[in-house]
Amino acid sequence: MLTATEISSYACHQEALEDATKCPYINSPFKVYKNMSSKKKGKFFEKIVQEYLEKQGYTVTKPENSDHDRIVRLDATKDGKTIKIEIKGSMLWGSGTMFRWQQLRPHQDYDIVIFLAVYPDRIEFYSSNKEELRALITTQDKDGNFVYNQHGGKKVNSGTYCIDGFPSDYKSIFHPIDTYL
């Protein structure tokens, strides 16, 4: 057994405390999301996008299946065009060195991805259509590596990808949110 009093004398605990003070979200209203599990964070990112789009005048409904997160109706008529959206959010990793958007699966049933970049002082929204995203993340480098592959190393195409960096690093796929809506 290790008590709360005893842990204070551990060097690794002191290191963890020091590391916590470097968190860019320490005084941010978005810290509540930083502290959530990935699954719970994803649930709230979906709700944030839905509420944001509804405030922009879009009609947003539940998904048809588990391959996408929401459906957006593009006009006010019942027969209006609908877009299946997948929602991917990220907060700054470590002390703010990058974002990581994970679990990108171009084989799933969606039309666009809405990306959230959650900074300590704001959330930026971006969109990408599935084809341009697929073209980027499934491309192999000159050595045959799948550089965006998330599982199983870089030599095997796992079908699941991640993107590391900032939105400005991916101008070819990170467009204003309303580009495809």
Folded structure, characterized:
This protein is an alpha+beta fold. The chain has one domain (12-179): 3-Layer(aba) Sandwich (Trna Endonuclease, Chain: A, domain 1), CATH 3.40.1350. 25% of the residues lie in helices and 25% in strands. The chain has 5 helices and 8 strands. A 6-stranded mixed sheet has the order 1-2-3-5-6-8. It has a two-stranded antiparallel sheet with strand order 4-7. Strand 5 and strand 6 (122-129) form a beta hairpin. The longest helix is centred in the N-terminal third of the chain and has 18 residues, at 38-55. The protein is globular, with a radius of gyration of 19 Å. It starts with a helix and ends in a 5-residue tail after the last strand.
What is the secondary structure topology, with strand pairs?
Elements: H1 4-7, H2 11-21, H3 31-34, H4 38-55, E1 59-61, E2 70-73, E3 82-91, E4 99-104, E5 112-119, E6 122-129, H5 130-137, E7 161-165, E8 175-176
Parallel strand pairs: 3-5
Antiparallel strand pairs: 1-2, 2-3, 4-7, 5-6, 6-8
CATH fold topology: Trna Endonuclease, Chain: A, domain 1
What is the number of strand segments?
Answer: 8
State the shape.
Answer: globular
Q: Stretches where pLDDT falls below 50 for ≥5 residues?
A: none
CATH architecture: 3-Layer(aba) Sandwich
Count of domain modules: 1
Secondary-structure element pattern, one letter each: HHHHEEEEEEHEE
Hey, roughly how much beta strand do the residues contain?
Answer: 25-35%
Mean pLDDT, to the nearest integer, reads 93
CATH class: Alpha Beta
Task: Give the distance, in angstroms, between the N- and C-terminal Cα atoms.
Answer: 56 Å
Give the radius of gyration.
19 Å
